[in-house]
């Protein structure tokens, strides 16, 4: 657990009986899965960020936390697109 982290404190706060929805890696995701959600946690690493970029226009002000795992800042692909989106969409 990382007390100041963006993700693990939320996982650590889950109680028995709490429910979360997790999509798998097989490419079966559909936009309908994110409709009417209060919060989204998007997790990607390396080139896995590419499908996340395609979701950005469809988030419709849903509170979103995006965790992008890379070894260095130079390894972040689409970093300029992510930064621009975050700047324009404070939610």
What report would you give on this structure?
The chain is α+β, with helices and mostly antiparallel strands and 91 residues long. The protein has 3 helices and 2 strands. It is globular.
H/E order of the elements? HEHEH
Question: With helices defined by DSSP (H or I, 4 residues minimum), what is the helix count?
Answer: 3
* Mean of all residue-level pLDDT scores: 84
Record the strand order, biggest sheet. 1-2
Sheet with most strands? 2 strands, parallel
Characterize the overall form.
globular
Helix content: 10-25%
Helix-strand makeup class:
alpha+beta
Strand tally is 2
Low-confidence parts, pLDDT < 50 over ≥5 residues?
Answer: none
Strand content: 15-25%
Indicate the radius of gyration in whole angstroms.
14 Å
Cα separation of the termini: 25 Å
Give the helix/strand layout:
Layout: H1 8-12, E1 39-45, H2 49-55, E2 63-69, H3 79-88
Parallel strand pairs: 1-2
Protein traits:
3 helices, alpha+beta, two-stranded parallel sheet, 2 strands, globular, 91 residues
Short summary of the structure?
This protein has 91 residues and is of the alpha+beta class. It is built from three helices and two strands; from the N terminus they run H-E-H-E-H.
